[in-house]
Amino acid sequence: MPVIPWQLILSQAPSLMTAAGELLAKSRNRPADIAAARNVDQLRDRVGELSRDQQTNAALVQELAGQLNGITDAVQAIATRARHALILAAAAVALGVAACVLALLR
Q1: Domain total for the chain?
Q2: For residue 98, is it within any domain?
Q3: Which residue has the higher pLDDT, 99 or 20?
Q4: Is 104 part of any domain?
Q5: Would residue 25 count as lying in a domain?
Q6: Range of the domain at 17
Q7: What's the whole-model pTM score?
Q8: pLDDT digits over 50-70, tens only?
Q9: Angle value at C-alpha 88, between 3 and 106, nearest 5 degrees
Q10: Is the pLDDT of residue 34 over 70?
Q11: CA angle 54, 55, 59 (to 5 degrees)
């Protein structure tokens, strides 16, 4: 079973939330910038900014997807362990019942 780097995941969570908040704040302020752009150079600059923002968003989404994939793998491993524990518990109960029946029949 792979070891999940929970320390790393939890330590990165605040920075991911901060980055996501900054991107959201930037995107909310952009409509005014577009309306203020009056010439072609300003519009080109704005398109360049949008392209950089899109790349930043894509990197953030990729990082989040990687962390989500790690969490999904961990949950699947835990579910497998729980299933095995349930099977062992059922076998232990069956052996206990069998032992009680044998004890009563003697």
Answers
A1: 1
A2: no
A3: 99
A4: no
A5: yes
A6: 6-76
A7: 0.53
A8: 888 888 888 888 888 877 777
A9: 155
A10: no
A11: 115
Q: How far apart are CA 14 and CA 37, in angstroms?
A: 34
End-to-end CA distance of the chain: 45
Q: Mapped to the 3 state alphabet, what secondary structure does the chain carry?
A: CCCCCHHHHHHHHHHHHHHHHHHHHHHHHHHHHHHHCCCHHHHHHHHHHHHHHHHHHHHHHHHHHHHHHHHHHHHHHHHHHHHHHHHHHHHHHHHHHHHHHHHHHC
Whether pLDDT at 32 is above 60: no
**Tokens encoding 52:** 């950089």
The answer to whether position 81 is within a domain reads no
Residue whose pair of structure tokens reads 């009680």 in the numeric block: 100
**The two structure tokens encoding residue 40:** 């072609």
